[in-house]
Amino acid sequence: MDEALDDLLQAIGIIEVKFSKLPWLSLLVLYLPHLSAAEGGFAQTGFTGYLRTPDAQVVDTKSIQFGLAWENHVNYNTDYRTGAHHTLMLGVGLLTGLELVVQNTYKNFDGAPGYNAGHGASDLSFSAKLNTASLLPDSPVQFALGVQDYGTHSATYHNNYYAVSQLDLGDFDFSLGYGRGDAKNQMGVNYLNGLFAGVRWQAHPLFDVLTDYDHTGFNSGFRLRTPKSWLPDGWQLNTTLQAFSNSSTPDRDNAWLSVGLKIDLGHGVKKAFQTYASSSPFGVTDTAAQQILPILGESDASPQISIQVEAAYGRYDPFELLSELKALGLENLRAGEVNGIPLITFENNVYLRNEMTALGAALGIVSQHIDGWYYLVVQSKQIPILALKVHGAALRQAHQHLRRPRIRHIQYLQAEAADLMDDVIWRTETVLSSRWIPRINLSLAQRSTLGTEWGVLDYSTALATNAVFDLGPGTVLDIRHLYPLANSDDAEVWWHPITPYENTFDRILLHQALPVDKNLFSQFSFGKVLDNYVAIINESSWQSETGQHRFSLLSGFYDPLDPSTQRRNRRTALGYYRYYFPDAKHGVELFGGRYLNGDAGYGVRTLHWFGDTQVNLELKSNETRTEAGLYFSFPLTTKQVKRYDYFQLTGVDQWRWGYRTQINGTQNLIRNASMVEPRLQHNLSSAYFNRDRLSLQYFYANLPIVMDGMRTVISE
Asked: Which helix (H) or strand (E) segment is 268 a member of?
C-alpha cells in the first residue's frame, strides 16, 4: 500500500515542479468570490488547521476525529526521527474550546521484531489547543494557544508552542500566528519558529482551497468533505491533499495525502435534549441548587399543572402491568403497595448501554396504568439500588408535550429504596426471576502498546467468553475463558511488554455485594484471577446524597497457585476520590496507593461523558516513571439484548482502549506490568451503578434520556 501511495504522491509531485517558483494559491485565493464559513480538519502534524499550520478552531465539543496521512519522498532506510514520514492522529473535543490530539509519526508501520529495530519505531506525542470560542461565541475573530509534544520526555520530535489569531469573513478565513519551535522537530529547525499564516477559501460547501506559510516555506492544497447524507448522523469523512510546498527543510518540500473521519459522540444525546425542552414549565436546569429540590419535596414553587386524566388510564391491574414489563425482558418483577401507594420493582438486563433507557421504558409502561403516585424500585443482582416516586398522569402529560417532567412529579429516592422494600405489602409473586440464568457475554480481550520504540502497534488479542450467574441477592458466579486470536510479531519476543494470551480459564470468582448503609456499598470477591492466582478482593464505595462526591477503596491479596513459578504474593490497596461537576457530565478522580505488581504511586484522571462513551485523560506515576494517557470506554453491545428462557447472549457494557506514553526519561518504553489498577470487570460501578451514572445529579441532568426511553414503549 505504501508503494502505491508513493506512486500517487510522486505523480502529484509533477504539479510541484510546474508551480515551484510561486506559491500561486496563496495569491489566487485573495481574489476569489465570497460564500460561507468552512469546517476545519487536521493539518499534517498534531492539531486542527490548514496544511502545516494551526488555525484558531478546535475539534468540535463531544466529537472525536481520526486522521491518517501519507507523505511523499519517505526514506525507509533512515531513522524515523528525520525526513518525511506518515502520521496517525486522534483528536477529541473534551470541553468547549479545548482539543486534545494524539499524534503517532512513523515510516514503517510493521517494523522488524525487536526494540528499535529495522527503523520500524515511531514517535508518539500529545498536543493541546485552547481557543476563545466560549468567551467570544459570536465574534468573527478568535484566538488560540497551543502546545505540542509537551512533557519532560527528552526524546521529543514535535515540540513547539504557538499563539494564533483567526479572522472569519464568510467563505474566507485568515490566520496569523507566532510560534517557538525546536531544533529537533521532525518538520524542520525553523518550523513554526516565528511568524506563520494561513488562508482558507470555501469554494463549495464540500470543498476548501488551502494555503499556508509555516516559517519554512509556503504550502498549498485542497480539502474535500462528504455530504452529511452519505454517512450516519454525526459522521463526516474528509480528505486533504497538499499538492505544493517549497519548504526549506530537506525532504519536506513534497506532497502528502490524508483521510479523516469525524464522529459526534453526543449526537443521540443532543437529539434527546433538543426534543424535551428544558425551558418549559416542566423543566429543570442543570444547576447545583436544583439538585437539592427533590430532597426538600414541596420546595419547588413553580405553578401546579393541570392534570387531565383520560378514562382509559383509570384502572390498575398489576398482573397486566407486569405482563407488559415482562414482554420487554425486564426481570424480578413484582407489584405491591406501601401505605396505599402502588410499588413496582424490576431489574434490567436488557438495556445494557444505559440504565436510564430501561428506567424510561419502565416508566412509560407503568405510567399508562397508574394515574396517581406510585413507587418504581430498580434492582441490580436482586438488591434494591434506587427508587423513584412518580405521578403517572403528570409524566404522561410531560411526554405528550415533549417536555421534561417537573421534579415535583418525578422524585429520586435512592437512599430510601431498601426501606421501601422492607415496608411493602406484596400483591404478586416474582415474575421472570434472574436466578441461575447464565449471562454469556462475548468480547475482545486486548493488550497493546502504541507509538513506542518497538513500533506503531504491538498487541495480543483473544476471544473473551464470560459467563455470569446470579445466585442470590448480590451473589454472583463469574467465569471467563480466553481463546487466543492474534499477536503482533514483537509480542512473541520474550522480553516484550506485551505478554501473549493463553488458552485458559483466567477468572473463576464468587462475588458478594453488600449494601452496608444507605450510601455505602461493598463487594467481596474470592477465587482464581490473572490465570495463576487465588485472590481475596474487596471494593468499598461511599457516595454523597447527590452523587457529587465518592470515596472508594480497592484492596486485595493475591497468592500464586503454583509457587514453583517463582511468582510472589501480591498485596494491593488503592484509594480513590471522585468529584462530578453539577452537570454530571465531567468530573475528576484522584487516586493513590499500591498497584497490582507492588509498585506504589498516585494518579489523576479526568472523566468526560458523551452519551454512553466516556473519555479519560490520565496521569500516573510511581517511583521510577510517569505516564500520560487518553482512553475511551464504551459499550460493545446492541441497544437492547433479548433474554431467552434459559440463557442470554450479550456484549459487554464497557470496553476500554486508548493511547499512553512515558513522559519522563529518554524513551517511550511502555511496561504493562507497571502502575496496574486491579479492577475487575464485575465491579460496583459497572454491575450496580450504571457505570457511575446512577446518582441524583446524573438523573436530573439527563432526564431527557429517561424521557427518550419512554418513546420506545409509547407511540407518538
From this structure: helix 267-275
